[in-house]
Amino acid sequence: MPGFNYDSSIADLIDKELKKFNDEDMLWIYDKLLIFVDKNQYSFHSETDSLLIGKQINFKFDDFNNIKEITKKIKSRLEKIGEIEEVEYFFKRIQKFNNFDKELFSFLKTNKRLCNFAINFIENNSLENRNNLPEFKFIENNYLYTIYQFTFNEINFNKDSINKVKAIFIDVISKDYHNNSKNFEDEDFLKWAYSYLINKSRDFKRLKYRPSTNSDYYNLIVSFLDYILHFKKDTHYSLTNQLYKAWSQKKFRAADKVKKQYHLPLTKGAKSELKKLSDFKNKTENEILEELIHQMYLKEMCDEDGKLKY
């Protein structure tokens, strides 16, 4: 057939043809390929075209971790065909399906936070979930998941829904003070807030995902706050206010302890014993002194119920 150099290897042909597509195309290309090579029948006849109409789901989202893995699988399966003419025929037949709107996803590709909001917005507003209570969902590999759903679930993940997500995110989510606080730049706050939300929110606690890096903590926490801002505004207002108030109090108490450092003129023996107690209890010397003073106060000044006697 014209159009290809038959002296080239099948691998070269595959690389050349795949370069004509974007990363996002690899999902539907792999799906079509699975139909073509079903049951290892590498004979592509015109009757197979009827099977290609529409977008079937012949593999699961969890089958792959990234686009590179899908691309590698495409190459491997095409190379197994072994006939350059049949590989050529495959690429010729799938051209009619090359209508994926790449520009639609340009603003999602580098924004994990936006991808997570898109997933929660679209899935909670889908026909099957519209009458149910909203539920927070967190997908670590969220861009690939969004592309997967857009490719195979056009009823819910379509151009209109993606554009709605973009508008809400720009006009509301990205402008909300609580969800864009400078506290999120603080590593200590992120880890503390994660524990706080687990204790305060059932939606957050039931998640099986466990963050490991600062970026993971940030994406998870902010995505959750974006979700409740849109779906549970009253909860968002009270929870975020409690969150930041509790953090401020924690910092204030820590600062207050630092301000009240006492330097008592202790003997060398007492100082040595205090240090040993501090090391043994894994507490600061000031904390040890506070405990000892409080214990003596209760013993000498209070009754059995802890009430002041004098």
Q: What structural class do the secondary elements suggest?
A: mainly alpha
Task: Report the β-strand fraction as a percent range.
Answer: under 5%
Q: Biggest sheet: strands, sense, closure?
A: none
Please, how many domains? 3
Q: Terminal Cα separation, in Å?
A: 106 Å
What is Rg?
A: 30 Å
Tell me the series of helices and strands, N- to C-terminal.
HHHHHHHHHHHHHH
General shape: elongated
What is the residue-averaged pLDDT?
84
Secondary structure layout plus pairing:
Elements: H1 10-18, H2 26-36, H3 49-52, H4 67-81, H5 84-94, H6 112-124, H7 142-152, H8 159-171, H9 187-200, H10 202-205, H11 214-231, H12 233-259, H13 268-281, H14 285-301
Task: List the main descriptive attributes of the protein structure presented here.
58% helix, mainly alpha, 3 domains, 310 residues, single chain, 14 helices
Concise structural overview:
Helices cover 58% and strands 0% of the residues.
Provide a descriptive summary of the structure in words:
The structure is a single chain. The protein has helices at about 10-20, 25-35, 50, 65-80, 85-95, 110-125, 140-150, 160-170, 185-200, 200-205, 215-230, 235-260, 270-280, 285-300. By secondary structure, it is mainly α. It has 3 domains: about 10-100, no CATH class; about 110-255, no CATH class; about 270-300. Helix 9 (about 185-200) packs across helix 11 and helix 13 crosses helix 14 (about 285-300). The protein is elongated and about 100 Å long. The termini are far apart. The model is unreliable at about 45-50 (pLDDT under 50).
